């Protein structure tokens, strides 16, 4: 058994089913140093096998509570991992991410919690397959992996990932809009993006996804270095008090993960619940290129400013153009 193509995965039935849960909060991810069980000594996420009658989600939540004492919030499933071991054992693992938690992570007999910056995930100390799919999950892509392991040596692997940028690129093509896209490791902050910057000619965008008390939503795109005063912005938009939308709202209305907000994400807002405001300096100078993520933060797309406006209008999001140079907001 050398190759994943030797196995008929459609009839493959796991010996056991397990779940893994990664809590992601404030630019950090909650990992554990596992003390016992399969993969003891490695760094992984809280998780384990399902108890009888449990769903994968219930197991993920229970194991996270048992292993590091936190209650995960805002959980969603991102992928499935199928491990065929050469000794015949078969493990199916459901992978979840949570976007918040209650309680402080504590050390238990099973695990040492490690809050880890998203840019410093220690793949060398993790299972060999993790470096293939964890970046996909962080970039907001669903994945499905099949693999063969001999002990903890990965013999073969194949991964399928759904790309949330597919719909966007197809649509831009239909509009006849040409863009250029450069791939890079996932970035979660303007600073991280700057550090990874490659030969981009254009203006980088910072995006704020905001709501008022009544739940009306605005996607505001400004030049990356602007300091935006939300109070002044709320007044100028006639929105009243503005605050940042939750990650759940972001996923629901714009179809992207925190860190991947982009003006291009309005393609997901088919019922036009989100209003768009844009910094005049991004679009007021015909011929400029605007640089933003194509739904995921592992790529940067360059689009001409007039094409960005055309795209926004075509999706039903005529933007409000705001001059930030003449105002504190
Ligand atoms: N290649 C791999 N990559 C990965 O990221 N996690 C893996 C993995 N192979 C196994 N795991 C994880 C998935 C699951 O959470 C865990 C299963 O280990 P165990 O069966 O030892 O369960 P635990 O001891 O954690 O919990 P219990 O089921 O409560 O005993 O190991």
UniProtKB/TrEMBL annotation:
<dbReference type="Pfam" id="PF00293">
    <property type="entry name" value="NUDIX"/>
</dbReference>
<dbReference type="InterPro" id="IPR040285">
    <property type="entry name" value="ProX/PRXD1"/>
</dbReference>
<feature type="domain" description="Nudix hydrolase">
    <location>
        <begin position="14"/>
        <end position="159"/>
    </location>
</feature>
<dbReference type="InterPro" id="IPR003563">
    <property type="entry name" value="8ODP"/>
</dbReference>
<dbReference type="Pfam" id="PF04073">
    <property type="entry name" value="tRNA_edit"/>
</dbReference>
<comment type="similarity">
    <text>Belongs to the PRORSD1 family.</text>
</comment>
<protein>
    <recommendedName>
        <fullName>Oxidized purine nucleoside triphosphate hydrolase</fullName>
        <ecNumber>3.6.1.56</ecNumber>
    </recommendedName>
</protein>
<dbReference type="InterPro" id="IPR007214">
    <property type="entry name" value="YbaK/aa-tRNA-synth-assoc-dom"/>
</dbReference>
<dbReference type="InterPro" id="IPR036754">
    <property type="entry name" value="YbaK/aa-tRNA-synt-asso_dom_sf"/>
</dbReference>
<keyword id="KW-0378">Hydrolase</keyword>
<dbReference type="InterPro" id="IPR000086">
    <property type="entry name" value="NUDIX_hydrolase_dom"/>
</dbReference>
<dbReference type="InterPro" id="IPR020084">
    <property type="entry name" value="NUDIX_hydrolase_CS"/>
</dbReference>
<comment type="function">
    <text>Oxidized purine nucleoside triphosphate hydrolase which is a prominent sanitizer of the oxidized nucleotide pool. Catalyzes the hydrolysis of 2-oxo-dATP (2-hydroxy-dATP) into 2-oxo-dAMP. Also has a significant hydrolase activity toward 2-oxo-ATP, 8-oxo-dGTP and 8-oxo-dATP. Through the hydrolysis of oxidized purine nucleoside triphosphates, prevents their incorporation into DNA and the subsequent transversions A:T to C:G and G:C to T:A. Also catalyzes the hydrolysis of methylated purine nucleoside triphosphate preventing their integration into DNA.</text>
</comment>
<dbReference type="InterPro" id="IPR015797">
    <property type="entry name" value="NUDIX_hydrolase-like_dom_sf"/>
</dbReference>
